[in-house]
């Protein structure tokens, strides 16, 4: 009885105290929960790649997906060549520095917001617990591909008896064209012939080329095929409409690279794909703009992986942005009340607002700018992406100090 009397004040105290409320779930937590069980996480961004808050969010999200959700691959929309070179070095037991990964990713993301992610990726890459690769066939400035790849190719061309090809690539990759030797519509045709000869040699049974070298040649062929076709069309129609074939071919090439990268593992990977939303989009046919003619990378991903893939877009209600880490910045027109960005912050005080697929469907077709900050586009956005994070005020990316 004495013990019961002692318990009564405690029970009374518990009954009278207010029940503690669970802390609100953050936008980042909601997104991690949605992505954790997926196989392919396509992390988009606005097409100018110059949004600091977006990059910072994506960098932290990438870290969490690897640590908390066991994602084991990180692929980014940049030239594949440097990453193929890095893989060759790793297989040979040679050192791969953080700076090599910085150069491979390229100057578009050489910002303070991206910087913390580099040692995280590089450490796991060297440990063999994370695959890292580029999915684009374009050649980026300041990379191993631009500075040194020609020297790797010249001995192969000499072995094929095509020494002029080595000189042509050395000239092209360093972009030494001038009035005496200009870049013309014939230039990519010549380079394409050289690249095809290289691919053919690397593909022959018994060839001594590595898988990485063959993949490098294939990407050169795709890049130069697209460039030669674009130059020919431009020459035939100097004032013709935009060449959507170029964009469609590039996205298709990115998917082919993604498939190849995934095929290098005997086990299915959980992959993060860091790219622009115009490439990540699962379908663009419902856009009320010329972009509806695109067939983006994300369309091929959705066809192969279905609901095991997830497209996350990003946008902003106001602020400024840049083109990559260039010093020139541009104002974002404040979002109108009827836009998707405007609706997101009605009666919402936080700095970000995450709209999941259900919310995007409920909001219906609206003007928004997750694809490019330079134009508003109307669409039923749930058909384009699976979720959208909107930043209240974006800021431009700045070049990281080295």
Automatic annotation (TrEMBL):
Gene Ontology terms describing biological process: response to antibiotic
Lineage per the UniProt record: Bacteria, Pseudomonadati, Myxococcota, Myxococcia, Myxococcales
The protein's name in its UniProt record: Erythromycin esterase
Listed Pfam families: Erythro_esteras
UniProt-listed CDD domains: Ere-like
């Amino acid at each position: 009885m004495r013990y019961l009397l002692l318990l009564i004040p405690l029970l009374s105290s518990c009954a009278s105290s207010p029940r503690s409320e669970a802390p609100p779930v953050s936008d980042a937590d909601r997104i991690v929960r949605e992505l954790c069980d997926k196989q392919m996480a396509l992390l988009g961004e606005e097409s100018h790649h110059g949004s600091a808050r977006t990059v910072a969010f994506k960098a932290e999200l990438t870290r969490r997906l690897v640590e908390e959700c066991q994602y084991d691959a990180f692929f980014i929309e940049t030239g594949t060549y440097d990453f193929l070179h890095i893989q060759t070095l790793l297989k040979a037991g040679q050192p791969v520095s953080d700076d090599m990964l910085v150069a491979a990713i390229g100057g578009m993301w050489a910002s303070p917001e991206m910087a913390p992610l580099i040692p995280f990726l590089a450490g796991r890459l060297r440990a063999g617990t994370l695959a890292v690769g580029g999915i684009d066939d374009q050649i980026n400035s300041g990379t191993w591909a631009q500075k040194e790849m020609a020297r790797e190719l010249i001995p192969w061309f000499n072995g094929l008896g095509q020494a002029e090809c080595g000189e042509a690539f050395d000239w092209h990759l360093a972009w030494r064209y001038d009035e005496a030797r200009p870049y013309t519509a014939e230039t990519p045709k010549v380079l394409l012939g050289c690249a095809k000869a290289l691919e053919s040699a690397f593909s022959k049974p018994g060839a001594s080329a590595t898988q990485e070298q063959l993949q490098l040649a294939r990407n050169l062929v795709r890049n130069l095929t697209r460039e030669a076709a674009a130059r020919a069309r431009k020459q035939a129609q100097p004032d013709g409409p935009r060449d959507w074939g170029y964009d469609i071919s590039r996205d298709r090439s990115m998917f082919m690279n993604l498939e190849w990268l995934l095929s290098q593992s005997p086990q299915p990977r959980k992959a993060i794909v860091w790219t622009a939303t115009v490439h990540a989009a699962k379908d663009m046919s419902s856009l009320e703009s010329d972009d509806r003619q695109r067939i983006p990378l994300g369309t091929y991903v959705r066809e192969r992986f279905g609901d095991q893939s997830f497209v996350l877009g990003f946008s902003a209600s106001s602020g400024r942005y840049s083109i990559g880490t260039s010093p020139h910045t541009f104002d974002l027109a404040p979002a109108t009340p009827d836009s998707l960005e405007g609706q997101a912050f009605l009666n919402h005080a936080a700095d970000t607002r995450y709209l999941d697929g259900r919310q995007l469907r409920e909001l219906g077709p609206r003007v928004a700018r997750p694809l490019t900050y330079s134009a508003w586009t109307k669409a039923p956005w749930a058909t384009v992406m699976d979720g959208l994070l909107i930043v209240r005020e974006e800021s431009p990316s700045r070049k990281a100090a080295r």
